Amino acid sequence: MENIPPCPSCKSPYAYEMDDKLVCPECGFEWIAEEEKVEVGLIVKDANGNILSDGDSVVIVKDLPVKGAPKPIKAGTKVKSIRLVEGDHNIDCKIDGFGSMALKSEFVKKA
User: Which PANTHER family does the record cross-reference, listed alphabetically (predicted)?
Assistant: First the structure.
């Protein structure tokens, strides 16, 4: 017996092969084994739709006001070694002159 993955719909371990598809006997879900991709981890995209990963360098695309700071972070500022996190502000980083910061991925592009 081959290593058949569990059903992506109901997670049942009883899936079986039928012709070129995999079928779940519990919920009736059918899928093609070649199309199955298991995405592990967080997927974050920049302003241009490029996928970001931990350790990437990004460039800020618009001026960002910072609470408590006398001036905003300017567009074109390069940020090195980002870390991706869950939440609304999904990038943690350190910006020279500002310190630790949480950014939204929609305001950066991959460098």
Answer: PROTEIN YJDM, PROTEIN YJDM-RELATED
Residue 35 has a pLDDT of 47
Do 48 and 97 have their domain in common? yes
**Rounded (to 5) percent helix, strand, coil in the chain:** 5, 30, 65
Nearest to 107 by CA among 52, 54, 68, 70: 52
Which domain does 71 fall in, by range?
44-110
Please state, in angstroms and rounded to a whole number, the distance separating the CA atoms of residues 89 and 44: 11
Q: What DSSP character marks residue 73?
A: B
* Structural contact between residues 50 and 103, judged by C-beta atoms closer than 8 angstroms: no
48 and 18 co-located in one domain:
no
